Amino acid sequence: MNELKQKILTDGRLLDGYILKVDNFLNHQLDVGLLERVGAAFAERFVGVKVDKILTIEASGIAVACMAARHFGYPPVVFAKKTQSLNMDPDAYEVDVFSYTKQTTYKVRVSRRYLSAGERVLIIDDFLANGHAARGLIDIVRQAGAEPVGLGIVIEKGFQDGRKVVEECGVRIESLAILESFDGGKVNFA
Ligand code: 5GP
């Protein structure tokens, strides 16, 4: 997606040489117009795929998943929670996920009320790095007896193992921008 790549080039910043900061359009401030077109791009990539539900993970996946839902006939969007709180349904699917940016393991939960056997679930997230978050979400969908029909990623770090991990899970992956390297302190696309 050219517009997205241009935005990454003009507005993205490299942190410590391995984290791409895109806080001003994806991870903190949101560029709603761009995200609307990101949602449409996912619908083009997954054209013909029947989607009953979209699953993402808080927080940055939520806006993207909602924008995608607009282009898939408004299926419900469910976001996996990263923290246990009093209002979280204790009857939940649960998985441990290693956080690339925080370098710790945390629990990801989805209430059993919101994923059901037989549902066709499209998973959406902002970044794919080593695939831990994606694998966790795929695991949760399968715990529910539902079917992960695809993974839509806004920005894939193609030089990490995420794609391999997702493919080993047997799930189709579509990324709108694939980064090849951060060589020379700048972003290079595949
Ligand atoms: P993974 O689980 O694939 O290793 O990492 C994916 C998660 O880590 C994403 O949901 C995102 O929150 C975060 N992440 C990984 N790499 C980057 C990065 O370069 N920039 C940003 N902003 N987030 C990243």
* Helical coverage, percent range: 25-40%
Main sheet: which strands, in order across? 4-3-7-8-9-10
Task: Give the names of the bound compounds.
Answer: guanosine-5'-monophosphate
Number of strands: 10
Helix and strand composition category: alpha/beta
| CATH topology-level fold name | Rossmann fold
Strand content: 25-35%
At CATH's second level, what is the architecture? 3-Layer(aba) Sandwich
User: Radius of gyration from the CA trace?
Assistant: 16 Å
What does the largest sheet look like?
Answer: 6 strands, mixed
Number of domains: 1
Tally of individual helices: 6
Which blocks of ≥5 consecutive residues have pLDDT under 50? none
Assembly classification: single chain
Enzyme class: transferase
Subunit structure: Homodimer.
Function: Converts the preformed base xanthine, a product of nucleic acid breakdown, to xanthosine 5'-monophosphate (XMP), so it can be reused for RNA or DNA synthesis.
GO molecular function, one term: xanthine phosphoribosyltransferase activity
Explain the layout of strands and helices.
Layout: H1 2-11, E1 13-15, E2 19-21, H2 23-27, H3 32-45, E3 53-57, H4 60-69, E4 77-80, E5 92-98, E6 105-111, E7 120-128, H5 132-143, E8 147-157, H6 162-168, E9 173-181, E10 188-189
This protein binds guanosine-5'-monophosphate.
Guanosine-5'-monophosphate is lined by residues 19-22, 27, 60, 100-101, 125-134, 157, 162.
Write a structural description.
With 190 residues, the chain is an alpha/beta fold. The chain has a single domain (2-182), classed as Rossmann fold (3-Layer(aba) Sandwich). It has six helices and ten strands; from the N terminus they run H-E-E-H-H-E-H-E-E-E-E-H-E-H-E-E. It has helices at 2-11, 23-27, 32-45, 60-69, 132-143, 162-168; strands at 13-15, 19-21, 53-57, 77-80, 92-98, 105-111, 120-128, 147-157, 173-181, 188-189. A six-stranded mixed sheet has the order 4-3-7-8-9-10, with helices on both faces. A two-stranded antiparallel ribbon has the order 1-2. The chain has a two-stranded antiparallel sheet with strand order 5-6. Helix 3 (32-45) packs across helix 4 (60-69). The protein is globular, with a radius of gyration of 16 Å. The mean pLDDT is 95. It binds guanosine-5'-monophosphate.
